[in-house]
Write a structure and sequence with these properties.
alpha/beta; Aspartate Aminotransferase, domain 1; Aspartate Aminotransferase, domain 2; 2 domains; binds D-serine
Length: about 425
């Protein structure tokens, strides 16, 4: 086999395998054929340092047009004054915002990683890299919500420069409004990290961060929002003194190349979501709820029972009694159901828990996009039970999973593409 064949065989293997799996990684999704077509273009070979119409290279007149359109489109959709689609990842978006509003040694407040914070919000991630000290907001482990009163006290006491609201484990909208007074008292910006719920927010089905008082929003563009992998920042901040600082953070401080081929694909995904996003997002919410209820019925310890388990695309399950998140996720993979182990809010952040945390996190966006509805979520809960509770041989369950998935091969919530 030639080296070239090896590479293409591996790509084919991946594509065939993942189309026979039930993918429930909450941070993943699948783009439509249209978005994929808009992604693989000449723009992937190009540079365009700077902002639209203010570039360091020639040859950028078409990306200028597309990028300016994308910036305006997302700002309008989110209700912000500005948007910038150049960050190539959500963590890069967070980094640019942190750099703009803090100095090394400053304090930021965010949730703890077990309570759901993205690693970039923490001492172990981007915040630490920038020399920032993380003070943790208070979280209610039972209801999966920010403890607003206690967190406001923490903010008044710690006097952070930036309060990050948002999480990678996110079951319910987070209280931005409740933290606003405390943040105003200490002149602290609120940044909402929308990465996971961006598609739901875009479609008006989660919360409205700018209306609720956020100053900035950072996000990735490929989780509930089914765009190409990448990031974005939106802001309602001062045009002269603050937004240019954010933009200078993106370039030249962090990026040189912003992967231009993302931009037309992202804009197209925005138009796709404008047309299909409300129905798609609503189905995501219904599917997550149906899955959580069915898993609880099958005997799983689904988190946040008192609040109806979830109002997002995610379901969190406490699997301590079943050996922990690591063996659970590994056993499910053997049955071709792909999920991740996940820290839960009560887990201490130590090596033992990082290796085998209390929970698993299950996301429904991709399977929703492939046309699954509430009925299918019940079937999926049974697959989980067969593997994790009944301890059936996973490879036996895998056969049923692969057969089940055969019916769901076409991406919905997009325009028809004639072959
Ligand atoms: N690590 C991703 C997640 O799975 O939530 C976010 O970047």
């Amino acid at each position: 086999m030639s080296n070239r064949d090896f590479v293409f065989n591996k790509i084919n293997e991946q594509e065939k395998w993942r189309k026979s799996c039930i993918n429930m990684i909450a941070s993943e999704n699948a783009t439509s054929n249209w978005v994929e077509k808009a992604y693989l273009t000449d723009f992937m070979h190009r540079y365009a340092e700077g902002t639209p119409y203010h570039r360091y290279y020639r040859g950028t007149k078409i990306i200028d047009e597309l990028e300016e359109k994308a910036n305006k489109f997302f700002a309008k959709k989110l209700g912000s004054t500005f948007a910038d689609v150049r960050p190539i990842a959500g963590a890069i978006a967070n980094m640019a915002v942190m750099r703009a509003f803090t100095q090394p040694g400053d304090i930021i407040t965010s949730l703890s990683v077990p309570a759901g914070a993205h690693s970039s919000h923490s001492k172990g991630g981007v915040a630490g890299l920038l020399g920032l000290n993380q003070v943790k907001l208070a979280f209610n482990n039972e209801t999966f919500e920010i403890d607003t009163d206690l967190s406001s006290k923490i903010i008044r006491h710690a006097r952070p420069k930036l309060a990050i609201v948002g999480a990678s484990l996110i079951l319910f909208p987070l209280d931005i409004k409740g933290l606003r007074d405390a943040c105003d008292d200490v002149k602290c910006k609120i940044i909402y990290d929308a990465a996971h719920v961006f598609g739901l927010i875009f479609s008006g089905k989660f919360q409205d961060p700018f209306k609720e008082g956020a100053d900035l929003l950072s996000t990735s563009t490929h989780k509930t929002f089914p765009g190409p992998q990448g990031g974005l920042i939106a802001g309602n901040v001062n045009e002269e003194s603050e937004w240019p600082q954010v933009q200078r953070g993106i370039f030249p401080k962090i990026l040189s190349n912003h992967h231009l081929h993302r931009i037309p694909a992202l804009l197209l995904a925005g138009y796709e979501m404008e047309e299909f996003g409300k129905v798609y997002s609503l189905q995501i919410l219904k599917n997550a709820k149906a899955l959580a209820e069915a898993m609880a019925e099958e005997g799983f310890g689904v988190c946040a029972e008192s609040r109806g388990y979830t109002e997002s695309h995610q379901v969190a399950v406490d699997v301590r009694k079943l050996g922990g998140g690591k063996p659970a996720a590994e056993a499910m993979e053997k049955a071709d159901i792909i999920i991740n182990k996940n820290l839960l809010p009560w887990d201490k952040l130590n090596l033992a828990n990082l290796t085998n945390p209390s929970g698993i996190r299950i996301g429904v966006p991709e399977m929703t996009r492939y046309g699954m509805k509430e009925g299918e979520m019940k079937d999926i809960a049974v697959f989980f039970k067969r593997v994790l509770i009944s301890k059936e041989e996973p490879t036996k369950v895998k056969k049923d999973v692969n057969n089940f998935r055969k019916e769901f091969q076409k991406i919905h919530f997009t325009w028809e593409m004639k072959k």
